[in-house]
Design brief:
Chain lengths: ~250, ~270
């Protein structure tokens, strides 16, 4: 099991953001997480990563309780925003990607030849080797996202967590991005947990859907979601229709 | 001019000034990029109050300042981490507290006002051999820290959240960084005084950011800028009979102006 949540509660002050969430994400799954603004999607993955403290409940990551988890090289993370990804931060693309190799390094952390090889390989794989000496801040939003994906992938993680990774991408690059994730999932069995607002597109790529609204509204396959009368009642046709329309088109093609 | 290099106090001023400036400049790069440039200013202002306290108690204020400024730096970090106070506001609170303390103590201790106000502007030419040694130790400690924790500090500066997902102890690294900053500020007060010491952190870093590409290159350029500014400032003060601390800051400003102009021209 890649992720297991038992009765997870996260509160900001007196406001409950996640309310007794129970979830099991098996190894090798590709899960698309959707839900309205403020539904707790980002809080959920930040709690899984230990970035946001839980109020109560239990989080298990790659078979170990989060409190005891130390194999961070097995987890890749692509955040929603890059607060410092501005013009002028003096860091080259290669240095950004190399940060993904820092986990579990003994003091003092040094990049060794295998790390440099891994960085070169992932840059080549994502077809961004040409940018390796460029400053990160000089890249476009879409280019930066690819570099950050390379940083998340450079340690060959078993679990990849992405928070709206395609928000800054044009439609073509978006499709390329999803294809890369699909390939990783199929070829290497990487578990993928992807937050997206593109509920109309995600059905073409992910195998499972998690609809979150402070608690789990639906978690399962797209087919079950689309046929669920309970979901029709919940959404009044609309969200279900958007998600299912593209999914069925994708299945048909 | 020739005797300039042979005067003992000049040699000490140059050596101590250069060592402290290098420490300030290396820390400054991380602080400027993390939008914490003003932490030096805040701690220096706080130091003003602690110096007043030392003089009131009739003890050599430097050791007391060293300890209290470190505690103040932890206070700023605590306010930033544990309360909803923004970094600049937390720095402002500690800074104001220090100045208020200094003013109150100055009003109470009539006899030491001259001493207290001399700390506002510093006196690099009065650096003792002992202080030069301490400056050397501190500079070595800062340089070694940056070398040993280079990847950790870079990761935390660039993307704190991602650094945490790599298992880095961001809180400890931040505490380490502000502690070194506090120690460096306390020492730097001897060189340029409480009013100007923070400029030794900000100027070389922003000048280097105009000139260099890549993080290591920026660190080297900042250290180089700091060294040049101290040498030029002390020489200027000797030749034109100006206050040394202020001359170092002016030299820094000229270097920044040159670097910014070069960058503007290079972009065209």
């Amino acid at each position: 099991m890649s992720v297991r949540l038992d009765n997870l509660v996260v509160q900001y002050g007196s406001v409950s953001v996640l309310d007794h969430v129970n979830l099991e994400i098996p190894t090798g799954a590709y899960v698309g997480i959707v839900g309205p603004n403020g539904s707790g999607k980002t809080t959920l993955i930040k709690a899984i990563l230990g970035l946001t403290p839980k109020t109560s409940g239990r989080i298990e990551l790659l078979g170990r309780p989060l409190e005891q988890f130390d194999q961070w090289q097995r987890v890749g993370y692509l955040p929603q925003f890059m607060p410092l990804a501005r013009q002028g931060f003096p860091i080259r693309v290669r240095e950004v990607v190399a940060m993904g190799r820092l986990a579990n390094r003994p003091f003092p952390r040094r990049l060794r030849p295998p790390d440099r090889t891994a960085v070169a390989d992932i840059l080549r794989e994502l077809k961004i080797s040409d940018w390796q000496h460029q400053e990160f801040g000089s890249l476009s939003g879409g280019q930066r996202q690819r570099v950050l994906l390379a940083r998340a992938l450079v340690s060959h993680p078993d679990l990849l967590i992405l928070d709206e990774p395609t928000a800054a991408l044009d439609p073509e690059t978006r499709i390329v991005f999803y294809r890369i994730l699909e390939d990783l999932n199929r070829r290497l069995g990487t578990t993928i947990l992807l937050i997206t607002h593109e509920s109309g597109t995600i059905g073409q790529f992910a195998q499972r859907l998690l609809y979150l609204d402070r608690k789990v509204i639906f978690y399962g396959g797209f087919k079950d979601f689309c046929l669920s009368r309970e979901m029709t009642n919940y959404f009044g046709d609309f969200a279900q229709h958007i998600i299912c329309h593209q999914h069925q088109e994708g299945q048909g093609s | 001019m020739a005797e300039f290099w042979h005067l003992g106090f000049m040699q000490r001023a140059l050596i101590a000034g250069a060592l402290i400036a290098v420490a300030c400049s290396l820390l400054g790069v991380f602080l400027v990029l993390r939008r914490l440039s003003l932490i030096g200013e805040g701690l220096a202002h706080f130091a003003f109050g602690t110096i007043g306290l030392g003089l009131l108690l009739n003890i050599y204020p430097f050791p007391l300042t060293l300890v209290l400024v470190v505690i103040a730096s932890w206070g700023i970090l605590y306010l930033m981490d544990k309360t909803n106070v923004y970094a600049d506001a937390a720095i402002g609170l500690v800074s104001a507290l220090g100045v208020a303390l200094g003013v109150i103590l100055a009003s109470k201790g009539r006899g030491f006002n001259v001493d207290l106000f001399s700390y506002l502007f510093g006196d690099i030419l009065a650096v003792t051999p002992g202080e030069a040694w301490i400056a050397g130790g501190l500079s070595l400690a800062v340089t070694a820290t940056v070398a040993l924790f280079y990847h950790d500090l870079l990761a935390v500066t660039f993307d704190e959240e991602f650094a945490r997902t790599q298992g880095l102890s961001v809180r400890r690294l931040n505490q380490f960084l502000v502690t070194l900053t506090a120690l460096t500020i306390a020492l730097g007060i001897r060189v340029v005084g409480t009013l100007l010491v923070a400029s030794l952190m900000i100027f070389p870093a922003v000048t280097a950011l105009q000139l260099a590409r890549g993080f290591k290159a920026v660190l080297l350029a900042a250290a180089g800028t700091a060294l040049v500014s101290v040498a030029a400032g002390i020489l200027l003060s000797y030749v034109l009979d100006l206050p040394a601390g202020a001359s170092i800051v002016l030299a820094n400003f000229v270097l920044f102006l040159g670097a910014a102009s070069w960058r503007l021209i290079a972009r065209r």
